[in-house]
Amino acid sequence: MSSSSGLLKKASDDRRPLSGERKHGEKRPESARPELRSLGGAAQPSQSQAMRLSATPWTPVVAILLVVLLDVTFDAYFWRIPKLSDVFTDYGYELLSTVHRLKAGKPEGAIRVVAFGSSVAFSFDATQVTNLVETATPNAHLDVSRLLLPGAKPSDYRLLWGGDGTAMRADVAVAIVNLGDFLNPSFEGQLKEQVRYVLPPWQTLIERHSFVGGLSGQLDLALASVSHLYRYRKLIRSCIQDHVKFGLQWFTKRDPLQGYGFYADGYARQEFGMPLASVNNGELEYYIDPEWLRQQGRVAIEFSIDGKLFLRRAETTSGWKRVRLDAPSTARMLQVATDSEWTPRAAAPDGDIRLLGVRLRQPPPARWVNSSAPFPTYSGQWRRRRQDDGFLREEGLSGQAFVDRWQQVLAGNTQFAQQMRGYQREKLSIRERAFEPRGEYDEIERLVASLSRQGISVALVNSPESPLILPAYRDTPYYQAHLAFLRGLADKYRGVRFYDFSAELPAEDFNDWHHPNYFGIVKLGSPYADTIRQAIADRYASHDP
Fold this sequence. Notes:
Helix content is 41%, strand content 14%. It is α/β, with parallel strands linked by helices. The longest helix is centred in the C-terminal third of the chain and has 25 residues, at 518-542. The protein is globular, with a radius of gyration of 34 Å. The termini are far apart.
C-alpha cells in the first residue's frame, strides 16, 4: 500500500498541467488566457473592453454636440440666470443684459424710453425719471431703460443700434453726449476691448476690421459672430464669479434676525430690516418726506416678511403712514425696500449728504444703526443698491471749500489727478483747433438720422460740465460750433430736439470735470423728465391726423 501510494504521488508530481490549467495561487500567463488568444497569437480585448474601446471615438463627438446645443440655445437659458452684481462690476454685462431684456418684448401700452451714452449716462436715473413723468402725467405708462458703457462713443452706439435697434422697439431715445466723446474716435489706434465685446461682432468686423488688433482681432470677431459661447465668454465668466461670490456670502452671512439699515436719528436707508417682535402692536408707522416726492415723483415700497412679499405700496403724498402687519405667529423678520432714495442737500445747501429712505416713528435700537443688510437681501432684490459712498468724492464739500479741495487734488501725483489733468488738456486744446464736423460728428448724425427714420423721437442732450472748466472754452469758436452742429441735427431731422445741460449744475455737484455725483443726479431728474415729456408730446402730435 505504501509503495502504490508513493507511485501515485510521483505520477501526480510529474504530470504537466494541461493548457489553461494553473496551480493554486499561480497567475495565468497573458498568452494562456483564452479571451486574449487568437489564431495569429496577438492579444485581443474582451467583450467589455471592446465595448469601451469602440465607444471612445464617440466621446469627442458627444462633447462637440453638447457644446453646439449649449451654443444654439444660449439665448433661451443664459439671460434667465439672475444677474447678482450691480452695474459697477461689469458694465458690458449690464448693457447686454438690458439689451436682451428689451429685445424680449415691450409691456402692452407702454412708451419705451431708452437712454444711452458713455459714462456721462450715469446722470440718468431710470427709476427717478419714470416716477417723475408718470406722476406728472398719470395716463402715461413708461418703460425706461439706460444703456451705459464708459468709453463708448457715438460710433459705437451707431453699431449697437444698427444691430439690435429694431428689436429693442424704442419709442423715445435719449442720446447723452459730452464734448469728450467727439475729440477722439473710440477706435483710434485700436478699438477698445471693453467696447468691442458688446458690439454686434459681424457689423463691427465689416466696419472696423482695420482697428481690431490685426488678424487675431479679426479672427476674434469672426468667431464671435458664429458662436454665442465665444462671443459672451466674458459674460459667462462674470456670471460664474457672481454666483460663486453669492454662494460664499450665503454660507458666511451674519444672523438674519439682526436689524439693519438705519441712521441714528431714525431715518432708514433704501433697504432696511427689523425683527417683528420690535414692531409695536403689529403696526409700523413711517414718514414720507415731501422733499423725497419732489425729487422722485413717487415712492414704491415693498414689505416682506421672512423673505416673502407681504405688501406693495406706491406713496404719492407726504406725511405719516401706517401699515398693519398681520403676520403669522411664527414670522420673525420684517424687510422693507424702496425703489429710490433722497438727499436733503439736493434740495438746498445742506450739510446732510446722506441718501435717505423713510423715517420711523420710534427710532430703532443703537445696535441697528449703520448695520448693513445680510446677504442675500431679504426683499427679493438680488443686486446691491447704491450706498452713500458709491458715487461721491471730496466728502460732500460745497462752495469755496469744494473748490479749494479740488485744486489740491488736481495738483497731486495720484493716478486720478494725472487723468484729470489729461482730460483738462484735451478739452482746453479746442481753443486752438478749428471745428471740423468729421469723425464722431459724422457718426452721431448717422445715428440720429437712423433713429429718426425709424420713427423714434430723439432727445439729444449735451451733458453737464463743471463750472471749474467750462468757462475756459465755452465761448471759443470750436465749442460754439460744436453746439451749433448738435442743434442743427434737431433742425434737420424729424422728431429730434436738442437740450444743452452744460451749465446745469454747480461745481460741488460733480465728481470731476463732467461726471455728476449723486446730488447732481438727483437734480438732473426733473430736466430729463421734461425732455421725455416733450418727446412723448412730439410723438403723439406727429401721429395726429
